[in-house]
Structures are given as structure tokens and as C-alpha cells.
Amino acid sequence: MDRFGDVVLLLVLMTNFAVLVTGRLSACIRIMTAQGVLLAMLPLASGARFGVHIAVLTAGTLAIKAGVLPRILRWAIREAPVRRELAPSIGPIGGVLLGLAAVGLAFGVATRLPHAAGLAVEGLVPVSLASLMMGFVVLTTRQKALSLVIGYLMLENGIYVFGLTLAGDIPLLVELGVLLDVFVGVFIMGLVVFQIQRELESQDSRRLTELRD
Amino acid sequence: MTASAIGALALILVVAPLLPALAGRTVAFLTGRRGAPLLQPYRDLAKLLGKGAVYSRTTTGVFRLAPAVVLGAALVAAGLLPLDGRRGLAGFGGDMIAFAGLLALGRLLLALAGLDTGSSFEGMGASRELGFATFSEPALFLVLGALALATGESSLGGMLGAPLARAWARAPATLAMVGVSLGIVLLAEASRGPVDDPATHLELTMIHEVTILDHGGPDLGILLYGSALKFALFAALLAGTFLPRAAWPAPLAVAALLPALALVAILVGVIESAMARLRLVQVPHLLTGAAALAALGVVLRVR
């Protein structure tokens, strides 16, 4: 797996690992921006014939995943006094080990999946599964509300990568609809993070269990 | 055993002390100083070898044994490495494990000698040396394993020889990741920044330097030469990974070792001056990252 598309996929994996090792929220947002740019390059490399479809998909991905979403997230934490994940339940080393386990599992499983023959980029399926699992790792080990949004984004990016295996076949409208859904989802989550921040003066999602009315 | 292998081994044995000096000189240049002359390590070695040795009464034979074992292990490891891009003096299937094991043996004796002095500083140095090795040795094994998988060879001569050139054409991304990982391992194994600071003279912050603090005279000279040789071996391994020279004419392949080693030393100097030393607790993070890169390479090749 060493053509252009595979190199991009490897870089996507690296950005996932980078999120797992870093605790700084603003750094996490920057890394997700980079991942958005990488994901926008993927349709070009996915082997589908270049046309309006691919061009719009690339531009839409770039605009939403690398432009709008990071902006919303930055807006959501602009008042937060805490800039880093203070108490992840696993440290960077544990995160990397779990990530590696996810990657190993994803590559092991992907070879046994009956996937459509002739995928131009053979790494799409394993990398998407690995992104999914690494997103779960972030979701389960972090407590800050914003980290959870980041984990959700990683998960969604995994699904996006999986969707690219069919990039030539799904109607453009469906894919743009998915992008819009993600945009709305993150927009709402950004609002929620902002509100949690304002109400509790902390982003610790564990404290949400103590809420009473 | 070929003439080019002997020539390359002789070359690396001669130029090994130059590498730390060149890295130090690069740091000096980048920080606006002139730095020690490049030939200073040879003068230091000559001076140290001409001195008598002083041994503390608390030390035992282990302390005196360490320099010989450190140097001996590094010399045998040098014989295993295909320095001319073809094959080492001795090569056999699985000799990569012997290579890593020999370097680990040298480290073990160094740590034991440090503990043998009974000094708390050296005990701390030994503990750090071994603690970091816990992370750098798996990374080294994963690097060698990924190289073995990418080339389908189990001997160092094979995996750094002709099959490597073919593997670069087939899997450049994997090999680049493995190379970067090896570079980080080199920084740790050669006790250079951002893992260790070779210029520090505060026992609390030193790692490699503090472990050999009680050695003097010829013993210290041998240890200094041994650690320079280890630096050179890793630099040669790195150069061999990025620059497979099996297809080159033998004299050229041997001669190319010299600029390649110099380039690695200069790069190390640049990294050292560009990065602050990591906090001790962060070094394992860096080395785990290196191991993760190499493990990713293994995963990509295993499928």
C-alpha cells in the first residue's frame, strides 16, 4: 500500500495517533484540521474517475472538515480556562498501545472481509476501521466535553473513509447530505460544549451525572 | 569475508570518534560558538590511554570488566553489520537478534558497573539507562522486524543488501516510517538530545555520562570509544536503511559510508540544537512513538 492514496491514509492514521498522545485541546483541533485536509485529498486518490462529482466532494470536505468544524470547536472553547485534558484515564503510552491494537485488529479483520474486488486503494477499509476504533478509544478515555467531540469526529472520519470505497457509486447528493449532517452534529455539540462550559465552569463530562433540576 | 567488508569495518573503527565530535561541532556552529576541533576526541583518547587507572575500594571485578565487555560487544556487533552494503564479516540467519543482544549486553555491564561503585548518582544513571532501554529495545526490534518483513530476509546482510533496494521500490512509505523510527532510536541509544544531553555536567540531569562517572584513565577512554562506536553503528544502520548500496561498486559503497555517517552526525547535531531536552518522563513517550511507527510498519507488511 504505497501509492499516493495509501500515503495519505497512513498520514490519516498518524493524525489519529497524534490525537491519542496529545492532551492539549487546541492541538487536538489543529490535528483534526490537518486530518480534514488529508481526507479531502482522498477522493482524488480513490481511483474514481475525476469529474464534477469528485471535485465537489473534495471541495465540500475541505470546506467543512478543515474549515468550518475547527472554527466551531475553537469558538466553543474560547472561554474555557482549561486548555488540556487534565485527567485522561490512560496516558499517552496507553493511548498509543490501544491505538496500535486497533490498527492491528483493523488490518487483521479487513483482509478477511468480503470487500468489493478492485478497490483502487486497498488501505481504505482497514484505515476506516482503525479510525473508528481509535475514535472509540478517545470517546471512552477522555472526560472533557470537547475531547468527546474530537473522538466523535475521528469516528465519523472513519465512516467517511469507508464511504470512499464507494465514491464512484453513491450519488453526490447523499455524500453531501452526510457532510451536512456532520456539520449540524458538530455545530450542536459545539453549542452544548459552550453551554456546559458556561453552566458548570468546567468541561468535565463526568459532572453531568450530578445534574439535578 | 570480503575485502570490502574488512575495509568498511576498518573505516568505521577509525572514524567512530569523529561522529560525536561532528555532532557537537554542529551544535556549536548553530549556537554561534566555534566548538572543539574535530580531532579533539583522538587527542582525548590518546591522553586517557596514556594514564593509569584508579579504582575505588568499593568496586569489584564487574567494574573493571565493564569497559572490555562494552567495547568487545560493540566490536562484534560491528562485525555483524553489513557496513559495505553487502554483508558483514559474519552473517547468519537471525543475526539481527544477536546484534541487538550484543548492544544490550554492553548496556547491562555498563549499568552493573555503575551500580558496583555504590554511588547513588551512578545508580540513578544506571536506572535511567535501563529504564529508557525498556522502550528503545522493543522499538529497535520492531524496526529490524519490519525491515525483515519488507525484504523477506532474516539476516542483517540480507535485509540491508540487495533485497532492500527492491523493497524501497515496492514499499517506500513503510520503509520511510521505519527509518524515522530508527532515527529516534539512534538518538536514545547514542545518548544524544533530546533524550540525553552530552554536554551537561550536572549529575542529576545526566544519563549516559553519569553512569561512567567513576571510570578513569584507559577505562574511560575505552568506554568513550565504545559509545562513539555504538553511535557509528546506529548511524551506519540508518544510512544502510535509507541508502541501499548493494548494487554499487564495492569501493564506492565503502567510500559512501563516510559522507553518510557525517550526514547522520550533522543531522543529530541539528536536532539537538533545535530541540530542548525532553523531561525525563517524556522520553518514554518519544520512544513509544518510535516503537509505534515501527509497529505500524510491521502491521502494514504482515498482511
Give me the count of strands of chain B: 0
The end-to-end distance of chain A, rounded to whole angstroms, is: 55 Å
Mean pLDDT of chain B: 89
Multimerization status: heterodimer
Which two protein chains have the largest interface (Cβ within 8 Å of the partner's Cβ), and how many residues from each?
Answer: A-B, 18 and 17 residues
Decide which structural class fits the backbone of chain B: mainly alpha
Run of helices and strands of chain A? HHHHHHH
Q: Given the C-alpha coordinates, what overall shape of chain A results?
A: globular
User: pLDDT below 50 for ≥5 consecutive residues: which ranges of chain B?
Assistant: none
How would you sum up the global shape of chain B? globular
The helix-strand sequence of chain B is HHHHHHHHHHHHH
Number of domains of chain A: 1
Q: Kindly state the percentage of residues in helix of chain B.
A: over 70%
Note the total helix count of chain B.
Answer: 13
Which structural class do you get from the secondary structure elements of chain A? Answer: mainly alpha
Number of helices of chain A: 7
Please give the radius of gyration of chain A in angstroms: 17 Å
Q: What fraction of the residues of chain A are assigned to beta strands by DSSP? A: under 5%
Count of strand segments of chain A = 0
Largest sheet of chain B: none
Subcellular location (chain B): Membrane
Main location (chain B): membrane
Keywords (chain B): Membrane, Transmembrane, Transmembrane helix
InterPro entries (chain B): ComplexI_Subunit1, NADH_UbQ_OxRdtase_su1/FPO
